[in-house]
Amino acid sequence: MSNLKSSTEVIAVKAISDLEPGDSILNLGEVLEIEENKEIYSIIILRMNQKQVFKFEKNICLYVSKEVEPA
């Protein structure tokens, strides 16, 4: 019997206004911080062991992933 835990990655579409720190944007990385100004969201993401800033318009939806434990 194996003691390894297995988890499943769930992919969902989220409006950028619903994004939270800890979410993982597909093909970019984990969201560390979110800053909102009049026209855009600036998202600080941990990518390749560096903090990088990506800017998105306010009407954007993003693909995010989360790991969930099997039932």
Explain what the structure shows.
This protein is 0% helix and 59% strand. With 71 residues, the protein is mostly beta strands. The protein has one domain: SH3 type barrels (Roll). It is globular and about 40 Å long. The mean pLDDT is 88.
Report the uncertain regions. Answer: none
Architecture per CATH nomenclature, i.e. the level-2 architecture: Roll
Summarize the helix and strand pattern as letters: EEEEEE
How far is the first residue's CA from the last residue's CA?
18 Å
Which structural class best describes the helix and strand composition? Answer: mainly beta
Profile the largest sheet: 6 strands, antiparallel
CATH level 1 name: Mainly Beta
Spatial extent as radius of gyration:
14 Å
Number of strands: 6
Question: What is the beta-strand fraction?
Answer: over 45%
- Spatially, the strands of the biggest sheet line up as 1-6-2-3-4-5
